[in-house]
Amino acid sequence: MMTPATGFQKLRFHADDGSEFPEWNKKKLSEVFSKITRKNVDRKIELVLTNSAEHGIIPQREFFDKDIASVENIDGYYILNPNDFVYNPRKSKAAPYGPFQCYYGEIPGVVSPLYTCLHPITKDCSQYLMRYFASAAWHRFVYDNGSVGARHDRVSMTDDILFNIPVEIPCLEEQQKIADFLSAYDKKISLQRERVETLKEQKKGLLQKMFPKKGETVPELRFPGFTGDWEQRKLGDIGSVAMCRRIFKHQTSESGEIPFFKIGTFGGEPDAFITCELFEEFKAKYPYPDKGDILISASGSIGRTVEFTGENEYFQDSNIVWLKHDKSIINPFLRHLYSVVEWAGIEGSTIKRLYNDNILKTEVMLPSVQEQTKIAEMLDGIDSLITLHQRKLETMQEIKKGLLQQMFV
């Protein structure tokens, strides 16, 4: 049973008989963990681990799809056993003060000496401590006592400061109730995440079946009533590449009236703005997308798309472009077509950029507008379902964050 608390924690569990658990003990991190100093010698252990804010402590090869640290260079790495902890001072959106994770692997591994490795003094506390350091309860101490590293992406502190981090410890029975409750909620989040991934895989499978394979003129899966071959066209045959007028840095500000999206903020939140006066002038004089046009990223992660909503926004020239096309294709279909297209002239290229020529020479297969409409409606429906379940997942994650804030203060 969980009830509002009257102490520092806003939510507390009760014992099975309904009685209250004792108040939590405040300890220093040095009373809870001992520092791991045992190093890998003669490469006795070859499993290299990495501490990821989102995925926990996992094999380096699994995270990077390759070995970053070679076997010859892992002498001197710290040895990590199951249920040991690792603090990584590297900051990220998911872990603003660095991830503090527990290793759940079945065999020992080694981690970079850039990490701080810790062994829980009381093994029974591991599950609780993992939950505690997933919360923000210890962030204030790091904020007050740590310093930002020279690269501005790391928390830099001495061992003395680290081992003085306060840790709130309840009795073992309440620890277990906290761990069980949060584990059950994590399973719900995991199931919801699987639903999202399943829907994405289903859409991926449909895309492969609803568009003709290379060298073919009809798709594997088709709506009733459509039988003719699709027509091969170059994008340059049906339209031209358009882009906004160039905006210079001195014309932008960190806040203002009209959002200005650069390639780094494309599809996200803007970090630059232009004046309404400049926007109206450029919109009237130079190319500007119509509502429903499909914007494409032409650099970085090329081929990402955003449907233009018609809001007053401006976009970085050459890096964000769109196809101004004729009536042989509709924008809802074009958006899905971009997700399966093979761009001309970039195969094997080390320069990941879409130039106008790459776009215009790209060959695509087009059905009738009527069939395009059917395909787009079906795929849009799946996208809506994915969005719905993704938002539910994000809501569940926010609820968990709120629970952690109330359980660990």
What would you say this structure looks like, in words?
The chain has 409 residues and is α+β, with helices and mostly antiparallel strands. The protein has three domains: 20-170, DNA methylase specificity domains (Adenine-n6-DNA-methyltransferase TaqI, Chain A, domain 2); 172-227 and 367-409, Orthogonal Bundle (Helix Hairpins); 231-365, DNA methylase specificity domains (Adenine-n6-DNA-methyltransferase TaqI, Chain A, domain 2, Alpha-Beta Complex), CATH 3.90.220. The protein is 32% helix and 20% strand. A four-stranded antiparallel beta sheet has the order 4-11-8-9. Strand 5 and strand 6 (56-59) form a beta hairpin. Helix 6 packs antiparallel against helix 11 (369-407). The chain is elongated, with a radius of gyration of 27 Å.
Summarize the structure.
The protein is α+β, with helices and mostly antiparallel strands. The protein has helices at 29-32, 60-64, 126-132, 139-145, 159-162, 172-210, 235-238, 276-285, 331-338, 356-360, 369-407, and strands at 2-4, 11-13, 25-28, 33-35, 49-52, 56-59, 78-80, 85-87, 100-102, 109-111, 116-120, 147-148, 155-156, 166-169, 231-234, 239-243, 258-261, 273-274, 294-297, 305-307, 314-315, 320-325, 363-366. Strand 19 (294-297) and strand 20 form a beta hairpin.
For the structure shown, list the relevant keywords.
3 domains, 409 residues, Helix Hairpins, 4-stranded antiparallel β-sheet, Adenine-n6-DNA-methyltransferase TaqI, Chain A, domain 2, alpha+beta
